[in-house]
């Protein structure tokens, strides 16, 4: 089997801890399945800036371009000051147009919505996140919302193709076209065009504010959520809360020439270096990465081991009611690989 060359971005705060835990589990699983990894470590964020004077060093760009796949821990981006989000910058640099976030309940986690299983497809390069902002005068700032036919068609295609491959039955396009009739109207027009090519999949449309209410009242009505960048960001975090929080949910940024898999939570500097962080989000992101690399056996082995640890409930981290640290949790997952 080939050795997979992967750019590893540890990140800031708890990033290095959850990244190290995830790599340990992947390496242990690889010894069982025969999967092999070569990690090329390059950092981004506050730590990288402190060492190099750049939030995203050129060496990181070069590594992702060469390897075409990266695993990224949470990074710290300054708020305000004109610096674009590191995550947004990487997505635009490599045209990672599809933000893919499965939201699936883990066993043993008590929530109001047991056995939830939905997927969010979020357009990842346009909308207000295009970063086209100007100061009209000292009292007025303006942001431009950019929606294109190309961007809308390809994210819709991604959602419907996934639905067809995985036996999903319904796609909801989420919008605010009742107010933004041109921009969101174009997005909806493109979604309808693509939906017509998949007659076996039910297509529906919900306004974004109503969607927030519906998700809280009955999230089981949704199967695949297809939406623009800003709405997708907000809805992704809302849905994470339905199954236990951002510390559990994976994320993937998929493009034609490169893909970056990442934890969707923050860098949590208040608990950095204290062996308290939960690596589940990054680990499940790594499982998505393994599927992307067609290492299905390794991905399934890790997912089953992770779910076994959660089902047993003996070695859980503090954020979900346990007492274990990062190291003990990751050791439990490694042990479960052979259980």
Automatic annotation (TrEMBL):
- Return the EC number: 1.1.1.41
Q: Where does the Isopropylmalate dehydrogenase-like domain lie?
A: 5-333
One Gene Ontology biological process: isocitrate metabolic process
Taxonomic lineage per UniProt? Bacteria, Pseudomonadati, Acidobacteriota, Terriglobia, Terriglobales
The Gene Ontology terms for molecular function here are:
isocitrate dehydrogenase (NAD+) activity; magnesium ion binding; NAD binding
- Keyword Transcription regulation assigned to the entry: answer is no
Q: What protein family does this chain belong to?
A: Belongs to the isocitrate and isopropylmalate dehydrogenases family.
- PANTHER family reported for this sequence: DECARBOXYLATING DEHYDROGENASES-ISOCITRATE, ISOPROPYLMALATE, TARTRATE, ISOCITRATE DEHYDROGENASE [NAD] SUBUNIT ALPHA, MITOCHONDRIAL
Q: Which Pfam families did the record assign?
A: Iso_dh (PF00180)
Keywords (alphabetical) are:
Oxidoreductase
Query: What is the enzyme's class at the highest EC level?
Result: oxidoreductase
Name the species this protein comes from: Granulicella tundricola (strain ATCC BAA-1859 / DSM 23138 / MP5ACTX9)
Kindly give the SMART domains that the UniProt entry links to this protein: Iso_dh
Could you identify this protein by its name? Isocitrate dehydrogenase (NAD(+))
